[in-house]
């Protein structure tokens, strides 16, 4: 029972949580600088396309670089409008997402060979870590995963430490609480926000790269499927902390993985119920979590 | 060049292009554009017109399929009511989450868009599937549930006239009634409106939110009643997102929404023609939508308005 159902479920939870965690970590950093990045969805789909194209050109390693670069490029447009022009974050973010979906969809239709429809896309499979992967249950769940998951094992503690213990991390949080006060203290608020957005874009791109190169194995139109918006919910649920965000990403990973579990149990439930599950969960969690969580004071302005 | 010619022919090249392509595609955009404009006017960032449209389509389809023997006028009226009620209900969930639990409507309405997509996918494979149970669609509507055409021989249908009527009514309500004044006051500055004493801000925003959903629901009713005559999964190619551009470009003025909706209708119609004859994919229209939005943002500095709204 355990080996047949629980282990594959937990394994799938980690696997589906991985791209979500990248996007959510990026969103967290931009929100701590006071910017809701609704363009995250666009950065993710750009990362999917960039990852696929770069991987075809130079292998899977280059693929991840290409994915991060594509997310970064789209986020730079967002940063320009939000920081330089001073336009509304929500509307700009929506426009950036529509732009990302439009550009990637157009490329997909015009140049299908470029993104590897039918072509063999170099993908990255699970790597069993020596020794650790032999631990019962935990070994298969945590230490037999594709490389991006291991990258997160390093990245989450790193971001947590950086945010708490470095000067730059303090500047980031100060800008999110009060850009005016931060500026008075000598922090270039606009630059901090722009860099935070750039980081969130690169992370969104890696989310897309992971989807294409470590999970699906091909690029498809609209394959980001709302993960950018879920990332925002994850940050709220994780109460704007890196560890909380990682934990919340696991909750959502489990919600996505539930459909595999139900399939293997052979329950006759409509599959659309499980398609809707992560989104319903987001709503329920937001409704119950809000109020106890502390958002950066200047978020969204 | 070939693509541009195809675009022009498809959007404006003939009476058929205008009456059967451009204005038909402008119709749902008119309703959802008004929906977004109304919500934004009240300070509600309703990004969920897409889901509310889908719910409206489900509601109107359910009524159309349940009343095969009713007279046409009655069926059309019932479809309108069901579409508006379903769209309003869907927005009502987000309104309730905002009012009771302080959930950001930007997130909740987007989540509800995905839930709505799953719901319609289930409907056309479950309760509302056609009787042979082969295709993921509902049965074709009876003749009475197919909305009348406005011009003989053209596909322009009743929905467009109703959309114009809705635009006129919304303009009148916002401009000349007490309710409209309250909405504008709340949208312009919730704190000022609250401290002026006469306005229950939370109630006004919730009602405007639900009315916005009802308008988006009408878009769905009008699509199934006037265009597809059956319920499909892909009932909206992202009209709810285009609606944000439609409303913003019109500066949230219902009269200008008519103009921008027709503009984006032409864009969609031309884009479809471009795909047919020149092989340029129709999703390229989204690039134009996004670029337009960014250009408008750059030009109008939306933020100044929002700053005032927040009372900061």
Keywords:
heterodimer, A: mainly alpha, two-stranded antiparallel ribbon, B: 312 residues, mainly alpha, 0% strand, globular
Q: Any overview of this molecule?
A:
The complex is a heterodimer of chains A (301) and B (312). Chain A has helices at residues 2-32, 40-58, 60-85, 89-110, 138-142, 147-165, 167-177, 179-184, 189-216, 227-237, 242-265, 271-289; strands at residues 127-128, 144-145. Chain A is mainly α. Chain A has a single domain, classed as ABC transporter involved in vitamin B12 uptake, BtuC. A two-stranded antiparallel ribbon of chain A has the order 1-2. The longest helix of chain A is centred in the N-terminal third of the chain and has 31 residues, at 2-32. The relative contact order of chain B is 0.21. The longest helix of chain B has 30 residues, at 72-101. The mean pLDDT of chain B is 89. Chains A and B meet through helix 3, helix 4, helix 10 and helix 12 of A and helix 4, helix 5, helix 10, helix 12 and helix 13 of B. Chain B: GO terms for molecular function: transmembrane transporter activity. Chain B: This is ABC transporter permease.
